[in-house]
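Q: Here's a chain of 436 amino acids. Please give me its 3D structure as tokens.
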Amino acid sequence: MATTQQLPETQPAMALAIDMSSPGQAAISYDLASPVKALHFPQELGGYRLERWQPVDHGFRWIEEGEGERLERSDGRRFKQVTFTLPVDYRFLPKSYAPFSPFSDGSTLIHSGQFHTCFSAPCDRTEPITISVEAPGKIIGVAGRRTPDHDTFQSDEEGTNIFIGTLAPVEADGFIAIVDPGLPTSLRQHLDRSLPMSMMFFAKIYGPLSFKPELYVSMDDTPETTGRISTQGGTLPNQIFIHFDGENAKQRLTSGTPYWLDWFFAHEAAHLFQQDQVGSLPGDDDAGWLHEGGADAMAALAMAGRGEAEQAYVSDREAKAEEACSKGLARYPLNKATAEGNFDLHYQCGLVIWLALDQELRAVGHGGLNDLNRAFFTAARTGSPWNEAVFLGIARDLGATDSTISRVQRLSSGGPDTVADDVAELGLLAQQALKK
């Protein structure tokens, strides 16, 4: 799985310099081996680049193109270099990780993937890029190493998080953690117990990870000018991260039970085992329920066995997922959810589908979701596509009934007007899976 690595003998045709010398500000400079007419970016970010990525040389402009955007000179001439000055602050970006996730002590994470670009459109696969980072007086954590002041690495595919700061990592059971010192003590103590439980639960089923993942938890409770408050997290190769942002972030963290945070980290831990077993981060936006719903179902089973309170939380969450799934699929099938801007349906419907299959397979003597995962991981690792047809074929071979397979196919691609009945029947199986 490639994301960050030592520099090869043949350098990519693009280099990026990130200068963190000025507090609260980053200077971002692209240097190209050959002149280009434009740099193309795969995703338009709701005006974020137009607003904040202002080149030092004012002779550049941003142009939307399809689902992405491009940077070009206003006079149409080719260029080999461009520099931006960006504020190091968090920005919520739909379906995209923020470029910067600040910590309360002044440290920050930088998501290198947000700076990947292409030489031509459509920008379906970004160019590998050599990134050099200057951060005087700080430690730069990247590619599994910690280096003072300066580092250089190659970033490709999804990119990685670069840590800039002075916080020391803490070794824990199965992972390395850098946690914001502003995180409430009670939540930190809960986190210290919860994540290792999920890691050990999955390791017993799928075997230990072949790598020691990094965990980043950051918090910035500075009020946003827009008044927005947000929580964003995710998984990149070998990394789990979560950022709490906006006014009263600390108070929000301690309100109510912490089970939502347990779910989040169990879900992200599940993604780590998916990527380790498959050999890459699996994904298909049109069938996002395979990996997102699968990770949610893995989290549900990991939590349901911890105690009555956790089981009640998981059961309630599944019931709410059923309701949301039925309501959403009444408008369009699951394979259209991403295009319709409702990616959450992949989590909600996927949770119900995966748990229903878990129950069916256990009823015929198989190991349920665990056996289904192992077979699907093996198929993907050995060259089969990570897609719905392969997945459902494996489920059928393991003993899933034709009626359940047909229900899943109708929810996914549309068909007779049976959405409510199909979701309800799958939901009954899903709830049974949580009561073992």
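Q: Can you summarize the key feature?
A: Confidence is low (pLDDT under 50) at residues 1-11.
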